[in-house]
Amino acid sequence: MWERGAKLHPVDRGLVALHTAFSESYDNLADWPLGRRNQALAELRCSCFGSRLEGWTACPRCAEKLEIQMDARAFAAPVSGTETPIIRNDECFRVPTSRDLALAARETDPRIGAVRLMEACRLGGGDPPAWTEQEMDEVGEQMAQADPLAEIRLTLDCPECGNQWDETLDMESYLWAEIAFRAKRLLREIHTIASIYGWTEGEILSLSEGRRAIYLEMASA
Fold this sequence. Notes:
By secondary structure, this protein is α+β, with helices and mostly antiparallel strands. The protein has a domain at 178-220. It contains eleven helices and seven strands. The chain has helices spanning 2-5, 10-21, 26-30, 34-49, 73-76, 98-105, 110-121, 133-146, 171-197, 201-205, 209-220; strands at 52-58, 65-71, 86-88, 91-93, 122-123, 152-157, 164-169. The strands form three sheets. Strands 3-4-5 form a three-stranded antiparallel sheet. Strand 3 and strand 4 form a beta hairpin. Helix 2 (10-21) crosses helix 9 (171-197). The radius of gyration is 22 Å and the shape is globular. The two termini are 33 Å apart.
């Protein structure tokens, strides 16, 4: 899974992880609302690595480093929302999916990306109108209300200068960073044991984690 997703876009990495863990086709996963996807990623994270999330960020005002701790179960639990079409004036929109997000991510200009996202979520035919910034903000707010976990926002307070700001928790990137760390650590373990004992990768992987740890300990001694 790690090898398959290493060169993919972060949106696709999340889908690869869910496709590996759950009995859903890749196409079906790509059409899940973003909130459902993030909930499943949080559930997967709790199952594989535990529920405790740790990280750090820096205050944008004074650059003070802040440590962050959260419980991933808060995001793995079902959240009330609706997939009913969102109506703004005479325009109807649905909530975004990973497929829509991947389409918008192709654009280097954030505003054009937001327009592409609205165009993808727009229901009905005809040419889309030229939306104003205010109209786009209003639709975005309605989408966030309809799908609360589509974007996980954290409100942080700096104990040094008292600044308060919001950060986005990207569950896909967080989970994939842990997957990549575990995969590379396992490769290093295989390399160490193979160098000492001459065993093949398959033979080393057939060992339990506990036995592999003992061989690593003896190899380092």
